[in-house]
Amino acid sequence: MPQEPVSLATGQRSLADPAIAYPLRPPLTRGCPRTGTADLAYPVEVDYAYDRVPAGLFDQPAGPDLARWAPLLPPLPAPTLGEGGTPLLEACGVYVKDESRNPTWSHKDRLNRVAVSAALTEGAPGVVVASSGNHGASAAAYAARAGLRAIVLASAASPPAVQSFVRAYGADVFSVPVERRWPLMREIVDRLGYHPVSNQTVTHTGHPYGPEGYKTIAYEIFVQLGRPPAAVFAPTGYAELLYGVWKGFAELRRLGVAETAPRMFSCEPAAGGPHARAVASGAPAAIVDLGATDAYAIASPVGGHRGVRAVLDSGGGTVLVTDDELRAAQRDLGREGLWQELSGAAGLAGYRKLGAAFDGPVVCVGTSSGFKDLGVESPRTVEATTFDQVTANLSATPAAGRRG
Amino acid sequence: MPQEPVSLATGQRSLADPAIAYPLRPPLTRGCPRTGTADLAYPVEVDYAYDRVPAGLFDQPAGPDLARWAPLLPPLPAPTLGEGGTPLLEACGVYVKDESRNPTWSHKDRLNRVAVSAALTEGAPGVVVASSGNHGASAAAYAARAGLRAIVLASAASPPAVQSFVRAYGADVFSVPVERRWPLMREIVDRLGYHPVSNQTVTHTGHPYGPEGYKTIAYEIFVQLGRPPAAVFAPTGYAELLYGVWKGFAELRRLGVAETAPRMFSCEPAAGGPHARAVASGAPAAIVDLGATDAYAIASPVGGHRGVRAVLDSGGGTVLVTDDELRAAQRDLGREGLWQELSGAAGLAGYRKLGAAFDGPVVCVGTSSGFKDLGVESPRTVEATTFDQVTANLSATPAAGRRG
């Protein structure tokens, strides 16, 4: 194996005020301590010695294992599961970055390689995560791989399929009433010393290193397209993904590797939309009422400052999509051979909803596999024993398709 | 995009007798017509102009898109979904080739890129497949991508999750009694002109081009390890995978790229095991009674000659594994961060059951994601509202894990 390049991470910096800096350790998992209030928390980000980034870092192909981007990530002592290196496929008039191709079949693996590495660096006996979906399973997988324990605080409402998923990695899974999840997580952190890899603050801050893993999506898209896209549409819950991808492209521009950076669009369920609310009202972050939606992976009443920064700094925007719009996008991606979870189709749904033209390629991040929705939609299959029963029930519309 | 290299496929050759050769087209989807009998069918394989294989073909990294191996595959007019280029990860004392990282999250995508390409070459309006699982969904995805229709003849017993999966790609899905599946498929082939991408013969022959796609697993393992492994253990239903991987390694040896080839081990559910029976009895193929097993993806009473050839020609063997042994292997892989479907753990289960030592690396092919089993096992999650309820229910055993 080649020698792994060394992290150039130098410290943490407040997103509230770039003049406020902290050492790299310990990770500020409860946000920026100097600027937070009872109503609003600001995350921190990781800073690097950008002047020491090796030449040729972005010349390598977009294969798996985040360690290939080690200089621009925090230290990565947690072993890889082969995360990243996902394909970029044309479908429905855009490019889809197919994150269902990760080790636990979602983009969250990029975050958890980084966050579980932090747990190892800090000497924690395990990680704790409040999640009913992809994030919990991914954290459990990376913890298991690293020899750490994992506690997952789930809600009773999570699909049974996802509960099997989380338990497969040996995590201790608890079904916890929603109002008890954060207090319980704080107790587990304070009393058991477990490292928190999900949010603990009033508006979202999450793990300070987590979005650094998502930067690698930007690096890979740049390598795959040979240029930055004109716009990126991302399914948005807490906006860690949106911010991480934005930061990656901003770094490419800062390093002189790319001349431009894309406009970033948050795509949230219309049933909630804290980032759309914050941007519209000029607030640094917002909390909204959350209505009913099947897009459980991005359904959150709580937003954070990261998403607002990504939208504003990139000259992008916010889009709200209904479940019907999500289902149409999910269906159309399936007709071109890509089965995304309902939330994973939010990028395409948002692009269509916005209806804007862009001077260059548009990338929609497809976050996870359709298997994650199981129980949300039930199939109806025609029974047949004769040829006539088959031909009488063939669908009328031809496949969408694309010839190679 | 670089110019795609040209296929060097020259024709088809009978596995019953290498002196019996046929033109490359049409694909002999009902096996070798000269040697088949009422009780036994022999498949054909694809032959190539091996003396014209470009130097450096095996120097490229193992990224996605089978077209990188185009010289040693039949023509590939079907568009890619980014199949192949899957990670090889150490776990449980072996290397696991994680085929859950393919476009529809199983190894079948490699076969269907090739088989759906054949449907395009032959000018068929669609493909038809008898499958209740991964194969049907993969065929549907590649057909959709290529603008072809797909008919999937499923059994009522397939898990609901898998039915959603197949339908997501726009296939026409029919629930067909098992005794009607093959007659109905033959009618759809003969009367609608659909191209068959699953088996139509008394013992298994399947699509003649299909296993060519699996050869790429061997090419990738060779590139990833920097050498051929000593042994490969593969989950085995019809043994197309086992044979394809074997053929790939045999080609590497024939081309002088590698000096050795691995011993190949078929890992079948103990409830059936037609290949174990055929090898033990000296028959070219066998049909057995099939008992109950949860490993539905590799549960078949019908074997074929390909698997027998792979085992005998490689000096390998056959292993039968019980559902309990499969579950133990599945659980232990999960504890190192890899969640395979039950059938996908058959390679590791077979390696353990055999208990043999090998003079070199052992590779187990992990065929698909644990999501494919949904409905087979139901989770039980502890409810908690207090810290004491959490600590009283933490699991006793530490995570297995491996530090990076």
The CATH topology of chain A, please? Rossmann fold
Task: Catalogue the unreliable spans of chain A.
Answer: none
The H/E string of chain A reads: EEEEEHEHEHEHEHEHEHHEHHEEH
Cα Rg of chain A: 21 Å
Quaternary state, please?
Answer: homodimer
Overall mean confidence score, pLDDT of chain A: 93
CATH class of chain A: Alpha Beta
Strand element count of chain A: 14
Task: Work out the helix count of chain A.
Answer: 11
What is the CATH-assigned architecture of chain A? 3-Layer(aba) Sandwich
Biggest sheet record of chain A: 6 strands, mixed
Strand content of chain A: 15-25%
* Helical content of chain A (DSSP H or I, runs of 4+): 25-40%
Strand order of the largest sheet of chain A: 4-5-13-10-11-12
Structural class of chain A: alpha/beta
**Largest interface, counted with CB-CB under 8 A?**
A-B, 96 and 95 residues
The figure for the number of domains of chain A is: 1
Shape of chain A: globular
